[in-house]
Write a structure and sequence with these properties.
Blueprint: H1 10-34, H2 40-64, E1 66-70, E2 73-78, E3 84-89, E4 93-99, H3 102-107, E5 109-116, E6 125-131, H4 132-144
Antiparallel strand pairs: 1-2, 2-3, 4-5, 5-6
Helix pairs in contact: 1-2
Length: about 150
């Protein structure tokens, strides 16, 4: 599994849902406040532009996100302007969780969450959309070589 892999393309949809879920109240309030005004057309055009910007940024984020297992570590590379490379040693991995939402199940995907020892964050690495088969293979590869499980 040393070849760099990308997330499933459905990760773009998950990212968009997350962004729009956070902005639904702001967009709704803006639309309601400008209904019947001359500004409504400009607001609608601005919202359409923002959504297009979010789609483009989600696709670029998906394109730049790569992960691989090389030797005894999980490598994650991401970012366009600020490129971030994360190396997680298999020995530090405490838990590997595979979760599926309703949308994940529709596409036969899973979310892989990896937690490490000594971390103050709840999740050190998260692969938002990989195939179920690939998620299980990744979990088995990381779990079996740690010697702890």
């Amino acid at each position: 599994m040393s070849d760099p892999k990308r997330l499933h393309p459905a990760a773009v949809i998950f990212r968009l849902i997350s962004i729009l879920k956070n902005l639904v109240y702001v967009i709704g309030a803006t639309v309601i406040a400008t209904m019947g005004n001359d500004l409504f057309n400009y607001v609608a055009l601005g919202i359409a532009g923002l959504i297009a910007l979010f789609v483009i940024s989600s696709v670029i984020e998906w394109f730049r996100f790569r992960y691989s297992v090389v030797g005894d570590e999980l490598r994650i590379e991401q970012g366009l302007i600020v490129r971030k490379k994360r190396y997680i040693s298999k020995n530090r991995i405490q838990s590997i969780d595979l979760t599926q939402s309703v949308v994940h199940r529709l596409f036969n995907l899973t979310k892989v969450q990896i937690e490490t020892a000594g971390s103050d964050l709840s999740t050190d690495a998260s692969l938002s959309a990989v195939t179920l088969k690939e998620g299980q293979a990744l979990r088995n590869e990381l779990k079996n070589t740690t010697g702890k499980r």
